[in-house]
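Minutes, methods subgroup
Present: GH (chair), OT, SY

1. OT presented the first of two proteins processed in the latest run. Sequence and structure tokens recorded below as shown on screen.
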Amino acid sequence: MPQYPPLTEVELPLLVTGIAGVAGLNAFKYYRAKYPGQVIGIRRDEYWPLSGEGIEGCDILNKAKLQTLFKQYQFRSVLSGLGTCRLKSCELDPEMAQRINVEGIQNLLDAIDSMPHPVRLVHLSIDLVFSGAGTGEYSEEDTTDPVTVYGKTMVQAEGIVAERFGDATILRISLPMGISFSGHAGAIDWIQSRFKKNKLATLYYDEIRTPQYTDCLNKLTHWMLTHDQPGLFHAGGPRPLSLYQIAQIINRVGGYNPDNLQGCPRIDAGPIPPRAGNVSLNSQKLIDTLG
């Protein structure tokens, strides 16, 4: 984790979107602990079991309800982690992916625009805006070429944020390593859930990411919310790892049966969803910015 200078206070109230996801949920918990009563998290209505203090059910496509929430709470900072990252669902229903990942960000920006005061925005994107056909180490200047519907919609969302909200910070992250609400949706807990049940887990040798723990991401988003750093930054972890290597670490640390870990090349996964290759991120620009 980078050695951050003392983190200053986020402009409150703060909205965290997409709290059903790994990055959003862990960010919501982090900020709620720091600023009790000043942080609101929203999730789609279908995730109604995710409830509690500070959690609002608000479908990002419900533009009127979203603007009502902004009017009610008068948000001054927004951490945008909204979207659906279910690769197969997006491939089978690209219109759904377009609505949530693209129209959803339009609605969020409309709600921000409705505020009479400035709003600080940090938007989370993903490494899967790249195909991984080469040797990875993608920089911010590299041309996006996603192989999935999900990746294509995330490219569109990035463009909308950059065009409409030039002061925003866009962070391209990789696999957020943390616990999900369901206990089996994130990279760590899906793999761990298989091993705990003594079931096989098959991971790809040649899908390579630069994962980062959510504890580190929380510090990063906090720093970005309190500093004027507009533009695009890659925010991967320090070491490229294949999905298989990630599973090896989880298996070893957890003391699980190593025979339950299997590997294969991503071509064996079949055509849907298509799998990216080496989408490791070069985060030197971010490192230089943090000092």
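2. SY then presented the second protein from the same run.
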Amino acid sequence: MHFCLGSLNPVKKEALIQALKESGRFSSVHVSCENAPSGVPDQPKGFESTLTGARNRAKAVWHEGIFMGVGIESGIVPVPLTRTGFMNLTACVFYNGREYFTGLGPAFELPTKISRLVTEEGMELDAAVQAAGFSKNPRIGYSEGLIGILTGNAVTRMDYTKPSIHMALAALC
């Protein structure tokens, strides 16, 4: 089965490949990648913006010959009763040319300084992580991710992304 991911991020691609194989639903898996526009700000804020970004990416890369277009988008969403009021989560959307199949992954609260930089100053998460002194890597989302830094790599960005893919696959049933 041919899946096309609407991102060139190698972590998202590998997470998709692993999750598709782990699902045991496909005898063969081929994943191609295209740089698809999300149609939302570089740092989505809120469920709607995050889901819209994933949907737009999935739809943009679907065409005849592709089994499913796939969009994976991380965003900051308001969550009451948390220290900062915001959590980071990932949405995955599969699109088959007619229907969308959506899944969400786990969420984690950002450190206060990073949360403030993203929510109040409008920074993208990678830039906020650098500005707050958590990493010198300008593209932390292309490697272990902020979650990798915060957990000492007990959970990496790939680990964190895969559940959203599995949840979207569950919607295919």
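Chair's summary of item 2: Helices lie at 10-23, 47-61, 112-119, 125-131, 145-150, 157-170.
Next meeting: continue with the remaining queue.
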